[in-house]
Specification:
Blueprint lengths: L10 E3 L6 E3 L2 H5 L6 E3 L4 E5 L16 E4 L4 E4 L8 E5 L4 E4 L2 H4 L11 E3 L4 E2 L15 E3 L6 E2 L13 E3 L4 E4 L13 E3 L4 E4 L5 H4 L5 E3 L4 E4 L13 E3 L4 E5 L8 H4 L9 H6 L1 E2 L2 E2 L2 E5 L2 E5 L8 E3 L4 E4 L13 E3 L4 E2 L15 E3 L6 E2 L13 E3 L4 E5 L18 E3 L17 H36 L1 H27 L1
Parallel strand pairs: 1-3, 2-4, 3-5, 4-6, 5-7, 6-8, 7-9, 8-10, 9-11, 11-13, 12-14, 13-15, 14-16, 15-17, 16-18, 17-19, 18-20, 19-25, 20-26, 25-27, 26-28, 27-29, 29-31, 30-32, 32-33
Antiparallel strand pairs: 21-22, 23-24
Helix pairs in contact: 6-7
């Protein structure tokens, strides 16, 4: 109630306060004089009404920012003032569509730069009203139930730096309306229903793209050669689609992955790219067999994931050039050939998954020099020979190597003097069992054929049948005649 008496208050931050219940109506009326309103990370409930237009708009007072994220607010999205620059309504229970919110502008354009509506229950199609929001730099709509394709008017968002539409039900081809958003640093379309090929212009129109996440869609076709122009790309996630063809040889020329970055502070431009006002950019990335959300250290992370596709051919040697790559996953494809011998040159590599392919040959000895490696999965291939000795490799679970013809620790299969699997007794036993099995099968077939050969003749040939029974009768009479002699003896 003390806040209700304040006439000149400009900043209200009661975030992380453990506050429950509804926000009183009089509090929303204060929003006309508040420059910063932060109610995030509490347990507020109820609907949010119209957030009033400020009664004064002096530029020296700075932009208006509103953070209501991580509560239990519900109902339709509130209407906001045109002077608001940052709006975070994420992780609530706002429902219905975006039309009333996005298409309400009547007098001029909004100044909004950051809009975070992720983690709600928003549905329906995305309306074609983006011409009212030309200043947007960050747009987050992930984890909702939005449907349909992206509207054409999104092409006016020429200042957009980050777009996150993951985990919705959006569909259609790769959005051509993004072609004019040439300043994008991040594109996340994961876990939707997009189809078709990746357009070649994607690699040409986003020269500063750092994060590209297209996992779990229905994209197909071959990977375009133009992706090699994404010189700043650090995270490439194309997993769980139906891409075909070989892994492009240019993949090792992505210069941002070649450079080993030690600290964000050493690269001001990179640090700026992942921090927008008070929003710290984040991304959901598969690493070490699990999904993780990277935020504060996102700028330090490099990853390449092409798992669960239909890629074929060998692993290009150029893949070992990105010395700054920390994680790569090529599992569940149709890859053949050998693991590149120079994989040990990737000095900061932490996670490798090449499982469920058709790779053959030995595990490169250079694996033993990967001191940072903490996750490895080479299972279900055709690899053979001895597992190289190193502190890391012998510490992994044996399941990391199962489904191959490998020997040595951590497996319980000892290697022979030449470094291969010796002829084990159980293999000979299996061979013997096969031979014995075929012997009994042949004997059974012969018995059946013999019985039916005799019985069939007697069944269909009457003269043979009569002769056969007369022979049995005479034989029985002769046996009975000789029995008394046998008894006397």
């Amino acid at each position: 109630m003390w806040l209700r008496t304040q006439k000149r208050i400009m900043n209200v931050d009661i975030s992380d306060g453990g506050i429950q219940g509804e926000v009183p109506t009089w509090f929303w009326n204060l929003s006309s004089q508040i420059r910063l309103l932060n109610l995030s990370h509490n347990q507020f409930v109820g609907e949010v009404p119209i957030i009033s237009t400020p009664s004064w708009t002096d530029e020296h007072r700075g932009p208006w920012t509103i953070y209501l994220g991580s509560n239990n607010f519900s109902g339709p999205l509130p209407l906001i003032s045109t002077i608001v620059s940052e709006l975070d309504l994420s992780n609530n229970s706002f429902s219905k569509g975006l039309s009333n919110f996005l298409c309400a502008a009547k007098n001029g354009s909004y100044r909004l730069e950051i809009l975070n509506l992720g983690g709600n229950d928003l549905s329906e199609e995305i309306p074609d009203c983006w011409m009212n929001w030309p200043e947007l730099t960050v747009l987050i709509l992930r984890d909702n139930n939005l449907i349909g394709s992206l509207p054409r008017s999104m092409e006016v968002l020429s200042n957009l730096l980050s777009l996150d539409l993951g985990r919705n039900r959006l569909n259609g081809l790769f959005p051509s309306s993004l072609g004019n958003c040439t300043k994008l640093h991040k594109i996340d379309l994961a876990e939707n229903e997009f189809i078709g090929k990746i357009p070649s212009w994607l690699g040409m129109r986003f020269p500063t793209l750092i994060v590209l996440i297209l996992r779990s869609n229905k994209f197909d076709g071959e990977l375009p050669q133009e992706l090699c122009h994404l010189k700043d790309l650090q995270i490439l996630d194309l997993a769980n689609n139906t891409f075909v063809g070989i892994i492009p040889r240019y993949i090792g020329n992505l210069s941002a992955m070649v450079k080993v970055k030690e600290k964000v502070e050493d690269d001001f431009e990179l640090n700026y790219s992942f921090n927008f006002g008070t929003l710290i950019e984040s991304a959901m990335v598969t690493n070490k067999g699990n999904m993780y959300q990277y935020d504060t250290i996102l700028a330090l992370f490099t990853s390449m994931d092409m798992s669960s596709n239909n890629l074929s051919g060998d692993i290009p040697i150029s893949l070992t050039r990105p010395a700054g790559l920390k994680s790569f996953n090529l599992s569940k494809n149709n890859l053949t050939g050998r693991i590149p011998n120079d994989i040990g040159d990737m000095k900061v590599l932490e996670s490798v998954d090449l499982s469920e392919n058709q790779l053959y040959g030995q595990i490169p000895q250079s694996f033993s020099s990967l001191s940072t490696l903490s996750y490895l999965n080479l299972s279900d291939n055709n690899l053979s020979g001895m597992i190289p000795l190193s502190t890391q490799l012998q510490s992994f679970d044996p399941t990391s190597f199962q489904g191959n013809k490998l020997c040595g620790l951590p497996l319980l299969v000892n290697c022979s003097s030449d470094g291969n699997i010796p002829n084990h007794k159980h293999e000979d036993d299996e061979s013997d069992k096969d031979e014995v099995g075929w012997f009994y099968i042949s004997m059974a077939i012969g018995f059946v054929l013999s019985v039916w050969g005799v019985c069939g003749s007697l069944l269909f040939k009457r003269s043979w049948r009569h002769a056969y029974f007369r022979f049995l009768d005479r034989s029985w009479e002769m046996l009975l005649a000789k029995l008394p002699i046998c008894w006397e003896i």
